[in-house]
Design brief:
Blueprint lengths: L5 E3 L2 E3 L6 E6 L4 E7 L3 H19 L3 H17 L1 H12 L3 H21 L6 E3 L6 E9 L3 E4 L7 H13 L3 E4 L5 H13 L7 E3 L4 H10 L5 E5 L2 H13 L3 E5 L4 E5 L5 H13 L9 E7 L3 H13 L19 H16 L3 E4 L14 E4 L16 E7 L2 H8 L4 E2 L1 E5 L3 H10 L4 E4 L14 E2 L2 E2 L4 H6 L2 E9 L2
Parallel strand pairs: 7-8, 7-10, 8-9, 10-11, 12-13, 12-18, 13-16, 15-16, 18-19
Antiparallel strand pairs: 1-2, 3-4, 5-6, 6-22, 11-21, 14-15, 17-20
Helix pairs in contact: 1-7, 2-4, 2-5, 2-6, 3-4, 3-6, 4-5, 9-10
Bound molecules: nicotinamide-adenine-dinucleotide.
Length: 476
Amino acid sequence: MTQPTLILNGEARDTGSLGSLPLIDPASETEICLLPKAGCAEAQEAARLAVEGFAEWSAVSPFERGKILRAAAELMREQADEAAADMTREQGKPLAQARGEWMGSADCIDWFAEEGRRTYGRLIPSRTSDMTWSVHQRPVGPVAAFTPWNFPAWTPVQKLAPALAAGCSVVFKPAEETPITGWRIVRALLDAGLPPKAISLLWGDPAEISDTLVKAPEIRKISLTGSTRVGRLLAGAAGHELKKVTMELGGHAPVIIARDADLSKVVPLAAEWKFRNAGQVCVSPTRFLVEAPLYDDFVSGMAEAAEKITVGNGSDPATTMGPLASSAQFDKIQDLIGDAIDKGARVATGGARIGNQGWFFAPTILADMTTEMRAMNEEPFGPLALVTKVNDLDAALAEANRLPVGLAAYAFTGDSETRHRIVSDIKSGMLGVNHFAMAMPETPFGGVLDSGLGSEGGIEGIQAYLTPFTVTAKEH
Ligand code: NAD
């Protein structure tokens, strides 16, 4: 079993200033290990180290930085089997999904290793012939990065890789629920040759650590992937300190199923992507808005597909859906289902816990959903498909755009006019048309409204860690 430690100045720390906290296996509810619990003291130390790390790392050329990042990606690939087993153990997702995430994360590091070499400046024609105007791209400085537990490798690399490729140092706090995966990524970076002060790893008391880091004068940028609630806290505090932020926050993705859609294609895809990672995905398809002629067939088709999902311990190769990641998730899902049933929802399948050990929950299809139900307003972040009948495209778009969040949205149609209307009117940061794949290193990923500020991935992903430096020079 991998025993993760805090890492400061490249050194393993197995004790924390706030004592320890348990790491729990969601499939068995048993303790995996005790973790050192960090707080203000370690956060202050990490902020100080990050200043020295920044001076050292930002002086390394982008070409050399890219080599170290690519070497880290290679080290990650070499340990894919062990890393996937650890991720499944701490987070619950099936092994194949854990492995896929780990390998995809190595690819993301490669992408940004290369992008670092393309952080071009520009020459601007000046107004007089004796002057040159140039714009350089400089790293923003030491970064504090906070990530959630649902994608314990992908969400960190979306921050660490562009920040490091840009020349920033990073203080990284993964979720307390999934420290091992974060620890493995940091170890790979250090083993590949990253200067020890350029990255610190800590976890413990999230409020104390984030408060310390956001206020620390050494830290110049805050990057969070997490809930809208914590996003407001951190962005508000960072705003007060006049620090840059990237906020990748919650969603509640609508899926418009137009009357011309081919359900024989839509249903298998929708069931696969809805229950991936037990629905604990920020872009998980959640509010299915189905035009009336297809409604009954969609509900029965989804129920049938959901019942074919094999729920179990993620380490069993037969498992296609693991447990929920924590008891808090479990309680929330049960509450949302209870509230929906009380207000008239129909359980087409699922709706209850499976077994009495481990946080296993049945893939659930709730039909006849209405906007008074809490699940239609609060991000469920679990294996719940909420199905609503809509009479036409106008009604579907009105419901899709009703919430104050706008991360991902999806639409299924073969009709070009319908597609055009959805592309033009949907309020979200991303739209999947006739498919559900969303997160690629090459494309920007981010939301509008309460889903966040800024994007990760693509060329936008590295721009978030750079700041323009303008030089106007005149002949002497
Ligand atoms: P969370 O907001 O509770 O925690 C996210 C991170 O912030 C954790 O590391 C947590 O410890 C830390 N944190 C910092 N200050 C904190 C404070 N004062 N209080 C509590 N935590 C603090 O989110 P979560 O439950 O870990 O993750 C689920 C949420 O993340 C969902 O809303 C999901 O939609 C969102 N998410 C968004 C994206 C995206 O790219 N937009 C991707 C994955 C998950």
